[in-house]
Amino acid sequence: MVIEPKVLLLDEPTVGMTPDEMLAMIEVVRSAHERFNLAIFLIEHRLRVVHELCQHVQALVFGRVLVEGTPAEVQNHPEVIKAYIGEQEVEF
Fold it and tell me: What are the domain boundaries of the chain?
Protein backbone atom coordinates (compact mmCIF):
# COMPACT_ATOMS: atom_id res chain seq x y z
CA MET A 1 0.00 0.00 0.00
CA VAL A 2 3.06 2.20 0.28
CA ILE A 3 2.99 3.11 -3.43
CA GLU A 4 -0.76 3.89 -3.30
CA PRO A 5 -1.99 1.43 -5.95
CA LYS A 6 -5.38 1.93 -7.57
CA VAL A 7 -6.00 -1.80 -8.15
CA LEU A 8 -5.33 -4.78 -5.90
CA LEU A 9 -5.00 -8.14 -7.71
CA LEU A 10 -5.82 -11.19 -5.61
CA ASP A 11 -5.57 -14.77 -6.85
CA GLU A 12 -7.33 -17.22 -4.52
CA PRO A 13 -6.46 -15.29 -1.33
CA THR A 14 -8.32 -17.78 0.90
CA VAL A 15 -6.99 -21.04 -0.53
CA GLY A 16 -6.02 -23.45 2.24
CA MET A 17 -7.54 -21.30 4.98
CA THR A 18 -9.81 -22.49 7.73
CA PRO A 19 -13.32 -20.97 7.85
CA ASP A 20 -12.21 -18.56 10.61
CA GLU A 21 -9.12 -17.51 8.65
CA MET A 22 -11.29 -17.03 5.56
CA LEU A 23 -13.60 -14.67 7.46
CA ALA A 24 -10.60 -12.73 8.73
CA MET A 25 -9.24 -12.42 5.18
CA ILE A 26 -12.60 -11.13 3.96
CA GLU A 27 -12.36 -8.37 6.55
CA VAL A 28 -8.76 -7.55 5.57
CA VAL A 29 -9.74 -7.21 1.91
CA ARG A 30 -12.87 -5.21 2.71
CA SER A 31 -10.88 -2.90 4.97
CA ALA A 32 -8.19 -2.36 2.31
CA HIS A 33 -10.87 -1.55 -0.25
CA GLU A 34 -12.49 1.04 1.99
CA ARG A 35 -9.36 2.53 3.55
CA PHE A 36 -7.31 2.90 0.38
CA ASN A 37 -10.17 3.34 -2.14
CA LEU A 38 -8.95 0.38 -4.19
CA ALA A 39 -10.53 -1.45 -7.04
CA ILE A 40 -10.09 -5.16 -6.39
CA PHE A 41 -9.66 -7.84 -9.05
CA LEU A 42 -10.38 -11.12 -7.31
CA ILE A 43 -10.02 -14.66 -8.60
CA GLU A 44 -11.77 -16.92 -6.12
CA HIS A 45 -13.66 -20.21 -6.08
CA ARG A 46 -15.07 -19.97 -2.57
CA LEU A 47 -18.53 -18.57 -3.18
CA ARG A 48 -18.83 -17.18 0.35
CA VAL A 49 -15.85 -14.91 -0.35
CA VAL A 50 -17.28 -13.83 -3.71
CA HIS A 51 -20.69 -13.04 -2.21
CA GLU A 52 -19.15 -11.11 0.69
CA LEU A 53 -16.74 -8.99 -1.37
CA CYS A 54 -17.99 -8.63 -4.93
CA GLN A 55 -20.67 -6.46 -6.46
CA HIS A 56 -19.99 -7.56 -10.04
CA VAL A 57 -18.59 -10.92 -11.15
CA GLN A 58 -17.78 -12.80 -14.33
CA ALA A 59 -17.82 -16.56 -14.77
CA LEU A 60 -15.12 -17.76 -17.15
CA VAL A 61 -14.97 -20.97 -19.13
CA PHE A 62 -11.70 -21.73 -20.91
CA GLY A 63 -10.66 -18.08 -20.59
CA ARG A 64 -13.85 -16.62 -22.06
CA VAL A 65 -16.55 -14.73 -20.21
CA LEU A 66 -19.63 -16.92 -20.06
CA VAL A 67 -21.86 -14.73 -17.87
CA GLU A 68 -21.52 -11.54 -15.85
CA GLY A 69 -23.68 -9.83 -13.26
CA THR A 70 -24.21 -9.89 -9.51
CA PRO A 71 -22.85 -12.91 -7.63
CA ALA A 72 -26.36 -14.35 -7.23
CA GLU A 73 -27.25 -13.83 -10.89
CA VAL A 74 -24.08 -15.52 -12.08
CA GLN A 75 -24.21 -18.38 -9.57
CA ASN A 76 -27.79 -19.23 -10.55
CA HIS A 77 -27.41 -18.76 -14.31
CA PRO A 78 -28.25 -21.97 -16.25
CA GLU A 79 -25.12 -21.68 -18.42
CA VAL A 80 -22.87 -21.44 -15.37
CA ILE A 81 -24.55 -24.44 -13.76
CA LYS A 82 -24.18 -26.39 -17.01
CA ALA A 83 -20.50 -25.46 -17.39
CA TYR A 84 -19.45 -26.12 -13.80
CA ILE A 85 -21.82 -28.87 -12.63
CA GLY A 86 -23.04 -30.46 -15.84
CA GLU A 87 -26.35 -31.72 -17.10
CA GLN A 88 -26.17 -35.42 -16.50
CA GLU A 89 -29.03 -36.75 -14.38
CA VAL A 90 -28.15 -39.00 -11.49
CA GLU A 91 -30.39 -41.95 -10.66
CA PHE A 92 -30.55 -43.30 -7.13
Answer: 1-53, 55-86
